[in-house]
Amino acid sequence: QIKDISEVRPGFGNQTFAHLLKKRILKDTDEDLAFTIMYNNHRSELHLMAPNKRIRDLWIAGLQILIDRQARKSQRDLIKEENWILSYFRLADKDKSNSLSKRECRKLLTNSLNVKVPNDIFERLFQVKKKQNFCFFFFW
């Protein structure tokens, strides 16, 4: 949830990205595409890649706006917002596993949320998930 986000950091400044660089899954030139969402009082991290620097910067700016608005929202508004996004995830979860498969995730991003992710970046994210045994896309 937005209220759990502590900070959004641009670039590679963490061990996960360092590991991916070392394994040559990512390149030095990808740093302008990377950002990390720190949450749960900096105890947890979500590492993401955008298709280009402009999109990454838009995500960071947008998340910062949401973080700022979150501080001013009423509980009623928060419940409506959470239900909206969760309904999309639940609809995308065709096998009712409470997580999204690669195919389900792709359909959610492109068809429901209108997010365009180049195939090479999308594939790279799922290769990382497979090698690292963690998931970029999970919910509730």
What summary fits the major beta sheet?
3 strands, antiparallel
Strand content: 5-15%
Distance between the termini: 10 Å
- What is the succession of H and E elements? EHEEHHHH
Structure summary, number of beta strands = 3
Key attributes of the depicted protein:
PH-domain like; 140 residues; disordered C terminus; globular; three-stranded antiparallel sheet
3D architecture notes:
Helices cover 49% and strands 13% of the residues. With 140 residues, it is an alpha+beta fold. The chain has a domain at 1-72: PH-domain like, CATH 2.30.29.30. It has a three-stranded antiparallel β-sheet, covered by helices on one side. The chain starts with a strand and ends in an 8-residue tail after the last helix.
Brief description of this entry?
It is built from 5 helices and 3 strands; from the N terminus they run βαββαααα.
SSE map:
Layout: E1 5-10, H1 15-22, E2 34-39, E3 44-49, H2 53-70, H3 75-92, H4 102-112, H5 119-132
Antiparallel strand pairs: 1-2, 2-3
